[in-house]
Fold this protein.
Amino acid sequence: VTAAALTGRELATTIRAAAAVRAAELTVAGRQPRLAVVTATDDEASAAYVRSIANAAGKEGIACDLLRTTTAAGVSATLAQLADDPEVHGVMLQTPLPEGALLADLARAIPAGKDVDGASPESLGRVTAGLPAFAPATAEAVLALLDYYQVELHGRHAVVVGRSVVVGKPVAHLLLDRHATVTIGHSRTADLAAITRQADVLVVAAGRAGLIGPEHVSPGATVIDVGTNVTDAGQLAGDVDPAVAGVATALSPVPGGVGPVTTALLLRHVVEAAAAVG
Ligand code: NAP
């Protein structure tokens, strides 16, 4: 058996094309959608991700400003300024953050209407409560990919590995909203393989290359790999061992699975945020 590859590029292209059309309309109306990305790290993987967002935004007619600072106080001051800037429609705070700083804490300074990557506790609370809000783009991308490939969620057992505020928790809530029965595993989970083998749909967001091997997956499962790890050889690798393709029915590749859809949804959010103003 070889699992079907749940690639995200086609879906991402469709989402981006629609965002570009709306962006052009808004630009004609004098309101070009504008994203500001705040970074406070030298992390190369993170910098590459931010560059790819800026590049994608440019291609779709969305303005993108990169703002670099080095301290938590600098992040707060920058976010406060962006919150008040009517020209800026979307604000994203990129991790990793300075030592000791918490994303959910600093992101409180991003107003919900500009919180295009769903980073603030208000956005997470609204997503959890089923109120309108931007969900974190990565979490939404997981659901978008599952929908695109018509993977049934209703009544099925979804297991999420990872419980971060950015990915694991919001993904679990979105799956729950779609009537999946959800289990969340994490670093203290006893016998992770026994849990993940119960999954009809397995979503892995741990940030550990090769964490999930064939022994973690039951035949027939759909596996979504959110992990992005840079190997010693400088290659991008997911959390799922490629050998899982011999067991699962479907597996999203890294790169080329969740990643492109995440970027596309982030751009869609910026356009929606700009459209919602005024
Ligand atoms: P994170 O904040 O480091 O959280 C990782 C989670 O995985 C934690 O809940 C942790 O458990 C759990 N975990 C770590 N090691 C584990 C193990 N051995 N067994 C079971 N669970 C384990 O990371 P994140 O921000 O959620 O990101 C997760 C991954 O997704 C990373 O690779 C990141 O680069 C990637 N990512 C991809 C995209 C994309 O667009 N494709 C976007 C964002 C993030 P504890 O809570 O117990 O520590």
Q: What stands out?
A: The mean pLDDT is 96. Residues 40 and 70 are 5 Å apart (CA to CA). DSSP finds nine helices and eleven strands in the chain. The pocket of NAP is lined by residues 138, 161-164, 166-168, 185-189, 192, 205-208, 211, 226-229, 258-259, 262 (CB under 6 Å).
